[in-house]
Amino acid sequence: MKILFLVALAGVILSPAVMAEGQRLHDASCLQCHASLTSGKPTSLYTRADRKVKTLESLQKRVKGCAIAADAQWSETERQSVVNYLATTFYKF
After folding, report:
1. pLDDT of 78 above 90
2. How far is CA 6 from CA 11, 24, 58, 88, in A?
3. Which pLDDT belongs to residue 93?
4. Which pLDDT score, from 0 to 100, does residue 90 have?
5. Handedness of CA 33, 20, 65, 38 (dihedral sign)
6. CA-to-CA distance for 59 and 69, rounded, in angstroms?
7. What is the dihedral of CA 2, 10, 44, 54, to 10 degrees?
8. What is the pTM of this model?
9. Structural domain for 8, as ranges
């Protein structure tokens, strides 16, 4: 029963609609600040060799902190969609 629940949950988390929403929220709230930190290459924070985020847990904490700093006012569901987008697209957890 647990396995079926986890498979169903993974399907919802990684659905194209959830991924698109995560990317939309990320791009609207994060890219400007990240571009200012990286000489105009905002996604390089995720792909650099010495990146600080190495686990899903640390990514969740980082997204939560950045959302507060950016005054994004995301719901928990929205924040999780950003985490899912980043984890799948860049971090490959």
Report:
1. yes
2. 9, 25, 21, 17
3. 79
4. 95
5. negative
6. 15
7. 0
8. 0.82
9. 2-91
SS3 90: helix
Q: Tell me how many degrees the CA angle 20-9-77 measures, rounded to the nearest 5.
A: 50
The set of residues, in sequence order, having a beta carbon less than 8 Å from that of 78 and lying 6+ positions away, is 21, 25
Total number of domains in the chain:
1
- Rounded to whole angstroms, the Cα distance separating 12 from 29 reads 23
Per residue in 17-44, pLDDT (tens digit) is 889 999 999 999 999 999 999 999 999 9
User: What does the mean pLDDT of the chain come to?
Assistant: 87
Q: Could you give the CA distance from residue 93 to residue 59 in angstroms, rounded to a whole number?
A: 10
Amino acid identity of 8? A
Cβ atoms of residues 63 and 86 within 8 Å: yes
At residue 55, φ and ψ (nearest 5 deg) are: -135, 160
